[in-house]
Amino acid sequence: xxxxxxxxxxxxxxxxxxxxxxxxxxxxxxxxxxxxxxxxxxxxxxxxxxxxxxxxxxxxxxxxxxxxxxxxxxxxxxxxxxxxxxxxxxxxxxxxxxxxxxxxxxxxxxxxxxxxxxxxxxxxxxxxxxxxxxxxxxxxxxxxxxxxxxxxxxxxxxxxxxxxxxxxxxxxxxxxxxxxxxxxxxxxxxxxxxxxxxxxxxxxxxxxxxxxxxxxxxxxxxxxxxxxxxxxxxxxxxxxxxxxxxxxxxx
Length: 251
Hints:
Number of strands: 7
Radius of gyration: 17 Å
Number of domains: 1
CATH class: Alpha Beta
Order of helices and strands: EHEHEHEHEHHEHHHE
CATH architecture: 3-Layer(aba) Sandwich
Number of helices: 9
């Protein structure tokens, strides 16, 4: 384990956009902490894949919707690596298609607890480790938002869209809060992207159904989103903070 290797933690890193970020980060030379909540097989398979390609990676279990788990995730990275240089707030959920007048309090509480409160708690722990105010050496945070924050997702999931609107505000506010503490905070806002999240929301055909409505007539890929994330984490983006980069094919 190289002492000078930067460490990146990706929440929800075992699948979809998270896994693509982990792969590209490993190729770029990061030691990668792959967080997962329940699918240990997927996380372990990804770690094995990265190691087989001469990467340095390890899996960390934990639910970002639970504060004790969030703290445990970051403490596990402390123990395994002794440093945290970059963090991607990627973990999030979508629920089944519904109108606002059909949504239960339980659905809304779960959505906001995982997508909003969880992201805030993870950002808190990352800043505690990176910020020069806390004795850190600086770092970069990228939050995963969504074009839904701008579009509202009417008739599908306004609650998810609202949760991502909160992520945009977190990005702007936190970026300004820690700008003098060596920490940059940005967001990537994907549009329709080919991942498993659509199936988890009960719409496995959503990409095929929506792509003709998109300016580029195709969905994005997880790798295209990951490339934007890696750019914002990199030194090439050293004067960029508080930015929300749309990776939505013009939507």
